[in-house]
Amino acid sequence: MKRNICLQLVAILAFCFAACGTEGRNASVATESDVNRESAAVPAEESNAENTAEAKASNANILIAYFSVPEDVDTDGVEAIAGASIVVKEGEKLGSTEYVAKLIQQTVGGDLFRIETQEPYPLDHEPLVDQAADEQDAGLRPKLAAHVEDFDKYEYVFLGFPNWWGDMPQPLYTFLEEYDFGAKTIIPFITHGGSGASRTVDTISRLQPGALMMENELVLSRNDVAESEETIVNWAQGLGINARAELSEGSEGGTVLTATADGMI
Ligand SMILES: Cc1cc2nc3c(=O)[nH]c(=O)nc-3n(C[C@H](O)[C@H](O)[C@H](O)COP(=O)(O)O)c2cc1C
Hints:
Layout: H1 2-21, H2 33-38, H3 44-47, H4 53-59, E1 62-66, E2 86-89, E3 92-95, H5 96-108, E4 111-114, H6 125-138, E5 156-162, H7 170-178, E6 185-192, H8 200-207, E7 212-213, E8 218-221, H9 222-225, H10 229-238, E9 255-256
The structure holds flavin mononucleotide (FMN).
């Protein structure tokens, strides 16, 4: 009799462990490329058929919006190009910020949205930096190519961009002025060539005064992005955004990984 009870207990425990194992975070990589370039956010659930229903439901309130311009450099099959703003992973060429955005989505789930302009930026370095400088001087708001559908449904917005001339790229101004973030939580992640985040986080706060800014923003040198998978994953997991009660507690001080002293741009 006792033995039967024991066997039943073991069976129940085994079932519980198996069930818990399927309830992990929503890990998914968007098959973003062309689809995301043309239209609205790519739901995590579409990008990984193995996600559980529970995980999808719990992450439907996360948006990962990012801007990134992978420059046109000859990668020649290597994984990272020193000084260039691209990462090459498994033959795919990604912008530094794009790479970080995709890792964040793998870690916390949510929908990935690429902020793109109607007029694409030049991919060659010199014309790109010149255009960015001109746009900044003029305070331009470049028109965006696509818009986030059902923006209201998101509670957390990861916002990723490169530091351009000590500021956000101008399309970020267009993006932040287009939507009312209300009381959403904004979680910035920024890549740079040596000057860190500059004053971009303050600028975001100024543009969206009602939003809650996650203080623990991620700031990554482009020189380190390709080797920072573990750091990015740990950071995203540490935000505790699936445990909402912990949100306001676990966010002290920005995570500045490196501020390399090489050329700024
Ligand atoms: C137009 C332009 C301006 C830049 N200005 C700065 C800058 O002021 N400070 C800095 O640290 N890096 C600067 N950079 C370097 C980028 O922040 C860095 O390469 C970033 O990782 C690029 O991200 P992406 O590949 O996602 O576009 C600049 C790059 C470009 C293209």
